[in-house]
Amino acid sequence: MRYEAVIGMEVHAQVITRSKMFCPCSADYASAPPNTHVCPVCLALPGVLPVINQAAVEATVLTGLALGCRIPEYNKFDRKNYPYPDLPKGYQISQYDMPLCVDGALEIEGRRIRIRRVHLEEDTAKLFHDDGRSLIDYNRAGVPLMEIVTEADMRSADEAWAYLLALRAILRYLGVNSGNMEEGALRCEANVSVRPVGASEFGTKVEVKNLNSFRSVRQAIAYEIERQSRLLDEGQRVHQVTMGWDEARQRTVFQRSKEGAEDYRYFPEPDLPPLQLREEWVEDLRARLPELPAAKRERFVTQYGLRPEDAAVLVEDRAVAEYFEATVASASSVGAGRRVRPGAARVDAQTVANWITGEVFRLLREENAGIDALRVSPEALAALLRLVAEGAINATVAKEVLAEMHATGEPAEAIVARRGLTQISDEDALRAVAREALEGNPKPVQQYLEGKEQVLGFLVGQVMRATRGQANPQVANRLLREELDRLRR
Description:
Elements: E1 3-14, H1 54-66, E2 74-75, E3 78-81, E4 91-94, E5 101-108, E6 111-122, E7 126-130, E8 133-137, E9 144-150, H2 157-174, E10 186-196, E11 206-211, H3 214-233, E12 241-246, E13 251-257, H4 261-264, E14 267-268, E15 275-276, H5 279-287, H6 293-304, H7 308-315, H8 318-330, H9 349-366, H10 378-389, H11 395-408, H12 412-419, H13 427-439, H14 442-449, H15 456-466, H16 473-488
Parallel strand pairs: 11-12
Antiparallel strand pairs: 1-9, 1-10, 2-15, 3-4, 3-14, 5-6, 6-9, 7-8, 10-11, 12-13
């Protein structure tokens, strides 16, 4: 039988704030020794009271607005009770029936994924299991945590992966979350069920946890779809349980029976007052929304004439998109109010995009770094690309120069002048080199004369090699053809 997957996602995103959700402890705990960012409140010592972090509330509402959510005027915090050792209080302060944001949506690849809710809660402590012992680090306990819950609108592992990528991009654009799954700043759980194709009722839902990379999200969901389909084909039942993803064995494994809302015994948090969010306050936050990735992608295509696939890559990271636009702007003007020197070549936006997604990204991948680590300013990259456009250097040399610019911070013109890398376009000089290349390679010459024109690329390469990459490849190509045609006569 053919089955259709039905998938919903629950994404937990740590909110970037200076302090924790309900106490003044620093939320920047990543490199701190264990149990050093703690206080009586986040350790749940007797007699303490929580205080709501306003910045975390603002970040959550901002996220809801970016996702098209409705922001109810009244909402409250609740106690979610469960007895795990990573909760020092024995309960988690969360939100249940009156969350901050409801009824939103996120468009991915022409499909509308509905957002049921975005609510705010506190993170748990971190458990470490080793050699039969379990240790707890409470530095993370109490860090603000957004939970973004979708409706069951996704139908494949690829759709779930695309949704998560789109959501991460929005969170990073807003500056409310780092988007780093490997460090636990972004964690997700997938609710997966299958049903016969054409059926209207949902199948039995299985929650899949321990998804700590985008790769594992796609693999775990695909595996769970296959597992459930196989069970149904064998006449067995799918049970509502919580499964974990075993990266080493590439399979889901049973963790525990699935809890329902009644198991958590929710009730209003008595130590925190309900929140009333005034309409003018919400509208002030709405005015702070930046241009979001989808809108920026469309603008890059229409304004700059970029290929859609290149625009999609550039807008994935807000800092990269800003670097691109600054480089394009600098390619038309140098300094405040100063125009490019008369006769200087223009560099089009697609060329800038090609270099950023190509050579710039390659340099950053080698260092496993982001665009902020690039030691080439937008103005410096624009100056390099103008040298290529003017014919002062060719693209091969420019790649070498860019690498040195990144390593040293030196401008392109200085590197080209110091190393004597100016492109050779003098026809008399290049014709002599071309003739030497033909004389030194009689076999490829004969192949060309017999009609095998693809060997011309090899001969151009010999000219480039003889000139240490400084020959103008277009001129070299033309001169080689002229010399080869002369040999035919």
